[in-house]
Amino acid sequence: MKTMLKTGLLVAAVALTFSMPSGTANAGAGVCFRAYQACIAAGNDIAVCEAEYWDCRGMSPPVRIVGNVNRGN
After folding, report:
1. What's the CA dihedral at 22, 28, 34, 35 to 10 degrees?
2. If you average pLDDT over residues 50-60, what whole number do you get?
Protein backbone atom coordinates (compact mmCIF):
# COMPACT_ATOMS: atom_id res chain seq x y z
CA MET A 1 0.00 0.00 0.00
CA LYS A 2 2.84 2.40 0.78
CA THR A 3 4.42 1.72 -2.60
CA MET A 4 1.19 2.57 -4.44
CA LEU A 5 0.81 5.78 -2.44
CA LYS A 6 4.40 6.84 -3.09
CA THR A 7 4.08 6.04 -6.78
CA GLY A 8 0.84 7.99 -7.03
CA LEU A 9 2.36 11.02 -5.32
CA LEU A 10 5.42 10.84 -7.54
CA VAL A 11 3.29 10.69 -10.70
CA ALA A 12 1.18 13.62 -9.47
CA ALA A 13 4.30 15.66 -8.69
CA VAL A 14 5.81 15.00 -12.11
CA ALA A 15 2.53 15.86 -13.85
CA LEU A 16 2.25 19.08 -11.86
CA THR A 17 5.83 20.00 -12.72
CA PHE A 18 5.25 19.51 -16.45
CA SER A 19 1.94 21.39 -16.39
CA MET A 20 3.45 24.57 -14.93
CA PRO A 21 4.53 27.26 -17.42
CA SER A 22 8.23 27.98 -17.57
CA GLY A 23 7.70 31.73 -17.73
CA THR A 24 10.40 32.32 -20.33
CA ALA A 25 9.01 30.37 -23.26
CA ASN A 26 7.31 33.36 -24.87
CA ALA A 27 9.16 36.17 -23.14
CA GLY A 28 10.29 37.77 -26.40
CA ALA A 29 7.17 37.00 -28.41
CA GLY A 30 5.58 40.40 -27.75
CA VAL A 31 8.70 42.29 -28.81
CA CYS A 32 9.03 40.19 -31.94
CA PHE A 33 5.37 40.61 -32.83
CA ARG A 34 5.58 44.38 -32.46
CA ALA A 35 8.65 44.40 -34.72
CA TYR A 36 6.70 42.26 -37.21
CA GLN A 37 3.80 44.72 -37.18
CA ALA A 38 6.18 47.67 -37.62
CA CYS A 39 7.84 45.88 -40.55
CA ILE A 40 4.49 45.43 -42.30
CA ALA A 41 3.43 49.00 -41.48
CA ALA A 42 6.65 50.24 -43.11
CA GLY A 43 5.49 48.63 -46.35
CA ASN A 44 8.02 45.80 -46.47
CA ASP A 45 7.32 42.45 -48.11
CA ILE A 46 5.28 40.17 -45.85
CA ALA A 47 7.57 37.20 -46.48
CA VAL A 48 10.59 39.23 -45.34
CA CYS A 49 8.74 40.41 -42.23
CA GLU A 50 7.71 36.83 -41.38
CA ALA A 51 11.28 35.60 -41.80
CA GLU A 52 12.54 38.35 -39.49
CA TYR A 53 9.83 37.49 -36.97
CA TRP A 54 10.80 33.82 -36.80
CA ASP A 55 14.48 34.78 -36.65
CA CYS A 56 13.70 37.09 -33.72
CA ARG A 57 11.96 34.19 -31.95
CA GLY A 58 15.05 32.04 -32.53
CA MET A 59 13.16 29.54 -34.66
CA SER A 60 13.29 28.54 -38.27
CA PRO A 61 10.31 29.69 -40.34
CA PRO A 62 7.59 27.11 -40.92
CA VAL A 63 7.73 25.34 -44.23
CA ARG A 64 5.32 26.61 -46.86
CA ILE A 65 4.08 24.21 -49.45
CA VAL A 66 3.44 26.12 -52.62
CA GLY A 67 2.54 24.03 -55.59
CA ASN A 68 1.60 24.73 -59.13
CA VAL A 69 -1.49 22.76 -59.96
CA ASN A 70 -1.59 21.50 -63.53
CA ARG A 71 -5.14 20.50 -64.34
CA GLY A 72 -4.63 19.69 -67.97
CA ASN A 73 -7.17 20.40 -70.69
Report:
1. -150
2. 86
